[in-house]
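How it folds:
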Amino acid sequence: MFPEARALITHGGWGTVGRALLHGLPMLVIPLFGDQPLNAVLVEGAGLGRHLPLSKATPDTIRAELRTLLADDAMRDRARRAAAEIRQLKEERAAAIALERLVATHRARLTRESRGEPGVQPAVSHAA
């Protein structure tokens, strides 16, 4: 459902907000309890959505807020940029994890190579 959506109406739970961010969707957040009111304020403060208090949520106000959200090109662009930044961070983190695993797997050999111990051939040839 997220890839096909143009916006998201949510109660503002962190899981749903996170998924919307990953997909670059502007949000209309109608918080109920817990972390949701804070998440709504954060989303609106970042320019990634609008906060509609539950006490003001009626079919008419929801419809009006959604129309405003869908017409806001700048908000949609910010949401897309946020998604791109999140994807980049995920890729960088995945690369760091892969490098950490590689080093951990080959730590003993790399240590022996760096000491120049006899009989240990470098894993990568540096010949030009």
